[in-house]
Structures are given as C-alpha cells and as structure tokens.
Backbone:
C-alpha cells in the first residue's frame, strides 16, 4: 500500500529510514536525542534500514557535533547549518525538518519530548498531515490487522494514558512518516563507538526576502523569522534525579508534607537525591520535579530506596532498572517488594530513623563494592 507524506505517495514506505531530529544547545546534543539514536538503531536493524539524524544549528557547532552522532548509531547525518539557525526558532526549524522529510521520506521520525520537541513535532506533523504520539515511554516494531488488511512493520508507540492508569499502544498504519516524541531517560543511551563510519550530508540553507521554492536545499524567507530571539535565560535544574547515584523516594505511606522531612534526612545522610511517587506529588507533599515513574522521570541509580511506595506499574517503570532497590513498606504484599532486592516490612517512621542512626554510627566511611554508600540495617548488619 502506498502511504502519504505531505500528500505525496511514498513508494515502498516500509523500507525507508528511521530518523531522529537531534536537539542541540551550543554544540552539545541533548541526552534524550542520544538515547533516541540508540533506540532508532534497534528499530532500523529490525526493519533492515538506516538511521538518519537531522542536525540543525550554526555551522561551526553542528559540524563538530555530527561525527559524535555517527558514533552513537547514525548512518547518515543531515546537516542543516546556517548562522540564523543558531538557536531554536519555531518556524525556521519547522520549515527545515518538513522540507527534509518531504524530500527524503523516512518512515519513522522521532523527537525528544522536551520543550523544543513538543513545539516542533506537532507543527511538522500538521504540515505533513500525519499523526504524532506524544510522550512515549517505549517504541517497538510490530504488525496490525485492520479491516481485513494486514499492516506489517508498524511503529508501536507506547505511552501512559488516562492519567497514567493504562498503557496505550498507538499505531499509524495509513500515513507516513510515523512520528513520536519520547521522554528523556526512558531509553538507554548507547555507548559511543568511535570506529563507526557514516555519511554527513550537507543540506544547503539559504535566506530570501520572499518565499520561493527550491530544488536544492531549503530556502527560508523573512516571513519565517517574524519571531526573534532577544535573550536566553537558562535555569539550572534544582533536582538532578537522572544523574543521582542514590535516590530516596517517598510515597503516600510518608503520610504528609512534614513526613517527607524524614525522607529528605535519609537522602542527605546518604548523599542522595529525594524522589517521590505520583501519588505523593498529587497530594501536594512535594514538587513535581521530584516525581519518578511513567509520568515523571526515569532513573537508574546505584541505589534506590522506596519509602512508603506501594509500587504501581507506572512507578516501577521509572525505577525498576536501578542497580539495587531497597523497599520499606508496612504492607508485606505491596507490589514494590516484587522488584526490590531488599525489603523491610515495617513503619517507615520507625525504620528510617534506625537506618540513619545505624549509618551514622557504623556505616559512614565504608563504601559498598559497587561504589554506593552502604545502607545499614536496624540491627547494624549490612543490608
């Protein structure tokens, strides 16, 4: 079946490439873009196609970055360099990405679910009259039967829906490209392979005072720059859950905003970062930037301590890849114990002070074999 991209037929759409629109700031690729290159590599290998990376920005910055994208899994880097594209602007970037897709016709295009990606992706989807699934937590390839027709090698776009209460699998069988934005941290970043080789394709970008069509590259008119970037203010993250080696997270079992003081004290004692379940955030006990799970941040610390967290499937999806998980819960049947390496059944308001006291008196200064801080059990033994 012929599919459509921007209203034009796409011959053999199921054999076209898998693309990642790479977000970069001052010549450094966003982590989510590198994570997406790893998943794009897996999807492309399954489909028997290539991985393309679209890189837009100022000439010097993006030219230097292109080889790093090849090392992370790209086979082709489409380099759209122009000084007027130094920083993200909605209309010019939309024009560049749309023009490239219409010319090259990839079957899948992925974006990070960042402020930039959430602005750019829907505008490209609208211009191409194709679908878009936002905030995906997983991507796979599979088949689907619909109205007697068999659609093979579709992109399964998986994301939480209805407030995170169900996991939906969304497909786009009749339109191309299939497009999705993906949350930061849910994919594993691939290791750089400096020995990989790939092609770097320079995409000519030109300026014109009025809109004109071009058969060679992209022409941006003055109308595309009606919005100007006057100043940039970069706000540093107050909470770095992704980079934390130790995360101490609280759930509804903490009981109140005041109850989080215990969680914070344990995190401080261990040199960790405070996390939270969605239920605790919804209750107003802690800010959303601390939320872990499918509707929050995905973490993979050396040590994850779950305090009063029941362990819904949505929360576990955001932390079950942690190297070591310690669960503290008064309910011995809590699902969190199903993914925990160690468990303590008891009142966290009694257990946490004992852990803090034991660590301070016996555990401090003794590193665990994996490099994390040791956690002492209430009886003083290592846990």
Residues:
């Amino acid at each position: 079946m012929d599919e459509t991209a921007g209203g034009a037929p796409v011959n053999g759409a199921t054999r076209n490439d898998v693309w990642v629109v790479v977000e970069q700031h001052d010549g450094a690729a966003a982590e989510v873009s590198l994570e997406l290159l790893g998943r794009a590599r897996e999807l492309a290998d399954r489909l028997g196609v290539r991985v393309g990376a679209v890189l837009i920005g100022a000439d010097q910055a993006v030219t230097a970055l292109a080889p790093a994208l090849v090392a992370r899994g790209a086979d082709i880097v489409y380099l759209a360099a122009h000084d007027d594209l130094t920083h993200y602007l909605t209309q010019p970037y939309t024009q560049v990405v749309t023009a490239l897709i219409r010319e090259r016709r990839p079957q899948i295009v992925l974006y990070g679910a960042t402020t930039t990606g959430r602005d750019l992706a829907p505008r490209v989807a609208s211009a191409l009259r194709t679908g878009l699934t936002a905030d995906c937590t997983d991507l796979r390839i599979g088949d689907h039967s619909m109205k007697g027709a068999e659609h093979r090698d579709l992109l399964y776009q998986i994301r939480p829906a209805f407030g995170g209460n169900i996991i939906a699998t969304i497909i786009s069988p009749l339109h191309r490209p299939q497009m999705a934005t993906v949350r930061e941290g849910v994919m594993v970043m691939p290791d750089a392979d400096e020995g990989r080789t790939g092609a770097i394709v320079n995409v000519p970008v030109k300026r014109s005072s009025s809109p004109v069509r071009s058969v060679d590259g992209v022409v941006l008119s003055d109308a595309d720059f009606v919005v100007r970037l006057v100043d940039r203010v970069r706000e540093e993250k107050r909470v770095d859950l992704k980079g934390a080696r130790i995360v101490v997270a609280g759930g509804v079992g903490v009981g109140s905003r005041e109850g989080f003081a215990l969680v914070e004290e344990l995190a401080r004692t261990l040199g960790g970062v405070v996390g939270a379940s969605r239920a605790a955030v919804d209750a107003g006990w802690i800010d959303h930037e601390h939320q872990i799970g499918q509707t929050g941040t995905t973490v993979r610390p050396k040590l994850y301590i779950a305090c009063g967290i029941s362990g819904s499937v949505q929360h576990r999806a955001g932390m079950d890849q942690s190297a070591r998980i310690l669960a503290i819960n008064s309910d011995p049947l809590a699902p969190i114990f199903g993914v925990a390496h160690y468990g303590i059944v008891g009142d966290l308001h009694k257990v946490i002070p004992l852990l803090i006291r034991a660590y301070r008196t016996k555990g401090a200064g003794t590193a665990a074999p994996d490099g994390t801080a040791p956690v002492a059990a209430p009886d003083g033994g290592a846990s």
In short: The CA atoms of residues 178 and 254 lie 42 Å apart. The mean pLDDT is 84. Residues 246-363 form a domain with the Rossmann fold fold (CATH 3.40.50.1220).
